[in-house]
Amino acid sequence: MKPYYSTELGKLYHGDCLDIMPMLEPVELVVTSPPYDDLRDYEGYVFDFEKTATCLYEKIKDGGVVVWVVGDETINFCETLTSFKQAIYFVENCKFKLLDTMIYHKSNYAPAYPTLRRYASTFEYMFILCKNKPKTFNPIQVEKATVSTKQRLGKYRKKNGSFVEKSMLVDTGRTTKDAENLWTICPTKSADAENHPAVFPEQLVQDHILSWSNEGDIVADIMAGSGTTLKQAEKLNRRWIGIEIEEKYCEIAAKRIEKERSQLKLW
User: What is the pLDDT of residue 159?
Assistant: First the structure.
């Protein structure tokens, strides 16, 4: 099976993920966003969710994670619940565990159309699915409002030379804390991916790769689109695998990865 594009770290394949995934080696992490609820036009392509979910479980290593980013279409003023149905299917039919339901909040986002009888939607779900206990978790750090202090037991020397134990407050010097499961990220569009209808925010993908994998692990995107997951994996020194059914998106992804590689060489 010849890849459409490759580097020392990864390979991008042009084709249907259901045809290609069975031939690939198992991976530690998948970060992907499928074409859900016809909210975007992906050249008319659709996908078989149930077969894809089953194949994902087979290709994730024990302790591996799938980050599944989805949203719901609104029909007759109500949400379809497609995202929740998919999460339940992953758990009840594929034996995945739902580690977390995270929220991707789009800051500075203006919906393209007015809403009636409901508030405008400015977020998507990020279901964190794992195969048994997750092997890796490197929590993203965010700034704290105050520096951490903690109480510990210490020894104090008396005038006669003997010691007495006492409690004392010690400044740990920690200025950060673990991020929470609501990520506010501006959905800026890359100039080199303007011909793709729905580009992953680079910060979102980068933070998931850092959270759930280590250098040398294999990161995959089975519906790679404009290649943001692959580009960030290359940047973060992860091995990677990409699959994309639309050839013109493969071309966009390959060009973006090459541009990233050029920038890395300059560093």
Answer: 73
At 218, the amino acid letter reads I
d(CA 242, CA 127) in angstroms, rounded, equals 20
Give the integer Cα–Cα distance in Å for 160 and 141.
Answer: 47
Task: Split the chain (267 residues) into runs of 10 and give each run's mean pLDDT.
Answer: 95 96 97 74 71 97 97 84 96 97 88 70 94 97 73 67 68 80 85 60 96 98 95 97 94 94 77
Q: What is the pTM of this model?
A: 0.85
Cβ atoms within 10 Å of 86's Cβ, excluding its own = 21
As a whole number of angstroms, the distance between CA 254 and CA 257 comes to: 5
What dihedral do alpha carbons 107, 110, 112, 113 form, nearest 10°? Answer: 120
3-state class (DSSP) for residue 165: strand
| Contacts for 262 with CB less than 8 Å, ≥ 6 apart | none
**What residues contact residue 184 under an 8 Å CB cut-off, 6+ apart?**
105, 107
Check: CB of residue 203 under 8 Å from CB of residue 266: no
Q: Which helix (H) or strand (E) holds 170?
A: strand 163-171
**Domains in the chain with CATH codes:** 5-140+180-266 (3.40.50.150), 148-178 (no CATH)
Phi and psi, residue 242, nearest 5°: -125, 145
Nearest to 218 by CA among 54, 64, 28: 28
In whole angstroms, what separates CA 135 from the centre of its chain?
16
Between CA 73 and CA 85 the distance in angstroms is 13
- Beta bridge partners, 7, equal none
* Residue 192 CB contacts under 8 Å (≥ 6 apart), including other chains: 252, 255, 256, 259
Whole-angstrom distance, CA of residue 204 vs CA of residue 42: 21
